[in-house]
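ok trying again, last paste got cut off:
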Amino acid sequence: MSKVESDGICSQEHSIYRTRRFSQIAENFGWSIGGYALAYSVEGGPGIVYLALSMIVAAMISSGIVYHGRVVLHPSLIRWSLVCRGISFTIMLLGGFYDSIWLVAFGGFMSGLFVGTFWPTYYRVQSICGLSFSKWNLRDKLAGALIVALSGLVIDMLGHIHVLVVSLIAILGSYWFSRNLNGGGDCDAASEYSSVRTDIGAIYSLPSLIAMAEGAFNWMTNLARLLVILTGLVAWGGVSSSVGLGLLLATTTSIGATISWGLGAFPNRKGNRSFQLVVSGLSLSLVACILLSNKSGWIYGMIVLSVGSSMIFPVLKDHVDAQIESNGLAGRGLREYSRNIGRFLGTLIIAGIWYLSPVLFLLTIPIVASILVIGILYFESSEYSIILYRESSMKKEVRN
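nice, full thing came through this time. structure:
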């Protein structure tokens, strides 16, 4: 973007935060539990899978259009995505009223359009403005943890409709604040990307594959958690499934956000320290998978897994973003597109295992595999970065 436009966006920092905050209220209050609990009440376990699959297919398609079509990530795209989210909650309300899984799934599809366009645009704006990822992540995630716990209680006492209505109101609030995100004038960002060639091969590059593996890892964990808790395979104490899921999500979200903030508070995550964090986080995640393989340790395993994934997420995000930028593909939404591809593959794997044999041990195997793949790809990518750095340094020395 031009300097004038980027300055225009960044001067509206409060609107940026409020837009995201209200959209996250809708996410945490109406989607994280409410949407999937509604799908389960209508169609049982398969309903959860239908909703997840319809959402992630739409997210993959829309983020793919953004990447391959070189769609300009202008703030107006945020408003379009929020319209899709509002339509999503409206259709899901109708699905609950008519007890139709197809309406619920279509609502999930519209939410997928939101996911595929909102986050690439938001992250781009955040990057241009130099906003702190760890600070807003801590603030919003801690608030989100409280909201998601409250959502579980409301669903248990009043039902799904109330949380979806509140979420729809929150989306309207998010859209209201997003109206101020105009960049200060007409967008000239197309000139920034005109020299960037669409490269399908970039999807198979190391940073893209890392994003895919990380997306698969997080989504397989999330879908397994939804299926296991909502179907009652594992219960948290004597509470209902919605309350138990709310408490679990609140706990893991709070721990994850605090760890992400703590890592981001340090001024430097380069070199060996980044590598050590990834190794430690992946190792902790593998230990968590041991606990996930049986009922008695499953809840603790999920909590430990949130610690491990929170240690690696900030490092992997910075690492992938830096390599994508060095490849001349910054601002194209490649990372989110790659993550959605991974999420889609992860959904198919977990859903297949669930249909064939819903056993905790079997559900854990693909999560373990994704952790190992992340480690291998990150190690190879780090070695490649070191080689490029050394070659660049040698060329500079020769010139001097």
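cool. The first helix runs from residue 3 to 10. DSSP finds 14 helices and no strands in the chain.
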